[in-house]
Design brief:
With 171 residues, the protein is mostly helical. 71% of the residues lie in helices and 0% in strands. It has eight helices and no strands. It starts with a helix and ends with a helix.
Length: 171
């Protein structure tokens, strides 16, 4: 693998790890914020935040490496090819990442499974750079959210922010 590509892959590993950590923290902050809500507010909030997979239009990049890595991972994880039940669940995530042209996510998952990445070359750098920019933007958005601000405050400030947050949702 070329040094520029190796450096980009290391940056992606760090970004994906940071994103996972940030999402986990945000989830815990959200649970704490929900503890300040009434039953009615909690039910309404949970009913309106169901996660939908949105497959967006991705600019036209060379997807050769994405396709090759996806096929290699699918063969390794598929239950019909000897994959375990746990691996079948991982395959569901792999399929989602493939459909979203998330080569960065596939790379991260493949590395955790010790899958050879030799099919990834410099031609894949534009898509990887695009994926890295998306991760960076999502991290910034998450860390600027009201829930993040709530989670990083002291107890007294949390109580005030929680009251204001739930009052604003009632309007």
């Amino acid at each position: 693998m070329y040094s520029g590509l190796s450096t980009l892959i290391r940056a992606i590993d760090l970004a994906v790890s940071s994103l996972g950590h940030t999402r986990a923290l945000l989830d815990s902050y959200m649970k704490e914020l929900l503890s300040y809500a009434t039953e009615e507010e909690r039910a309404e909030f949970l009913a309106t935040t169901a996660e939908d997979i949105v497959i967006e239009d991705v600019p036209d990049f060379d997807r050769t490496g994405l396709k090759k890595l996806y096929h290699k991972m699918a063969l390794a994880l598929h239950p019909d090819r000897g994959g375990t039940e746990k691996e079948a669940k991982i395959l569901t995530d792999v399929i989602k990442k493939y459909k979203q042209s998330d080569l960065a996510g596939l790379l991260s998952r493949a590395r955790s499974l010790n899958i050879d990445l030799s099919m990834i070359t410099n031609r894949d750098m534009p898509l990887l750079n695009y994926n890295l920019a998306k991760i960076t933007k999502e991290l910034k958005t998450l860390r600027e959210s009201q829930v993040w601000k709530f989670g990083t405050k002291g107890q007294k400030e949390k109580e005030t922010l929680a009251r204001l947050y739930w009052e604003s949702r009632r309007r």
